[in-house]
Amino acid sequence: MTVMSAVLPLPDPVLRARDPRAAEAHQDRLARRLRRQVGQAIGDFGMIEAGDRVMVCLSGGKDSYTLLDLLLQLQKKAPVDFELVAVNLDQKQPGFPTDVLPGYLRSIGVPFQIIEQDTYSVVTRVIPEGRTMCSLCSRLRRGALYRHAAEHGFTKIALGHHRDDSVATFFLNLFHHAKLSAMPPKLRSDDGAHVVIRPLAYVSEQDIARYAQVRAFPIIPCTLCGSQDTLQRRQVAQMLQGWEQAHPGRIDQIARALGNIHPSQLADPALFDFLSLGRTQDAPRAAPGGWPTPDDAGEVPPPA
Predict the structure, then answer these.
(1) By the 8 A CB rule, do 217 and 103 touch?
(2) 203-234 burial by CB neighbour count: b if 16+ within 10 A, else e?
(3) What are phi and psi of 54, to 5 degrees?
(4) Which of 87, 140, 234, 269 is geometrically suited to a Cys-Cys bond with 119, CB 3.0 to 4.6 A?
């Protein structure tokens, strides 16, 4: 005899309303973490000093908006007095909404300056269609910003590069230029005239994206290079994202390694005196390049 069992329907799940206080608490923790990281970077590298006039470069992207927002918050409680001025470079890209940044900056009461320089025409004229524009665009933009900083007495130039930018630059230099180099949190320009700072050096791009969404910044996409999908930097970013998904925390570990260098464990004689290591004090030292090589007059004979 077959025994039939009744199937009782499960009750509909009870949908709980999201507690707005929980969302606010999460946003507050995010803001506190970013302020702490930016403050730590400023302190670790001596980025801002008393009396500094800081030019905050504002492009309209999430990174520069976040940079300005956090610096404004830290300025209120900073141990030193300093000035912040937002500066945007209008590169005359077709369709660029020139009213967005001035409107936003006026709404929050931040002093700002707009540089107008048609770098767009130069880049599109010089670079063939389909080729990467970033290198030339970056040089032209840097030159315009440096000139403006000199003409208006700015003592520091603040850029919105973050932790992930530095890690990506490290791998780009490793893969394509055979050197170990990244984006330093603080540097002096090649001509020695300007000090560039990157207060977001400890902040992840993911946190910046979340923060920009919470703060509802009026983001302006870059139509000049944003559609160039074959950029080497984007390929490296995809590689890093894959690592991060497979091994959470990998990017942070690499970033921490950039500040934990052991020259004696590498192979650059300019950073570590390998010649003196283990050398007998009275032993004569061969001149650099004095050892024979296969390119000399004859092959090096094998040992007897």
Answers:
(1) no
(2) bbbebbebbbeeeebeebeeebeeeeeeeeee
(3) -100, 125
(4) 140
User: What per-residue confidence (pLDDT) applies to 304?
Assistant: 57
pLDDT of residue 23: 73
pLDDT at position 230 is 47
Residue pair 98/90 in contact (Cβ under 8 Å)? The answer is: yes
In the chain, % helix, strand, coil (3-state, to 5) comes to 40, 10, 50
Q: Are 194 and 53 in contact (CB under 8 A)?
A: no
Give, in order, the Cα–Cα distances in Å from 277 to each of 123, 269, 280, 291.
Answer: 50, 11, 9, 18
Other Cβ atoms less than 10 A from the Cβ of 121: the count is 12
The predicted pLDDT at position 15 comes to 60
Reference 168, options 236, 260, 84; nearest CA is 236
User: What pTM was estimated for this model as a whole?
Assistant: 0.83
CA distance 74 to 208: 16
Query: Is-contact 54 87, C-beta < 8 A?
Result: no
CB 133 within 8 Å of CB 224: yes
215 closest CA partner among 114, 297, 108, 103: 108
Amino acid letter, 2? T
What 3-state class would DSSP assign to 292?
coil
Residue 98 Cα to chain centre, angstroms = 25
Helices marked H in 56-116: 62-77, 100-108
Sequence-distant (6+) residues with CB within 8 A of 105 are 58, 86, 111, 112
Positions of the chain with pLDDT under 50: 226-227, 229-230
Task: Provide the token pair at 33.
Answer: 């973490």
Amino acid at 178: A
Name residue 269's amino acid.
P
Nearest 5 degrees, angle CA 198-CA 45-CA 169? 45
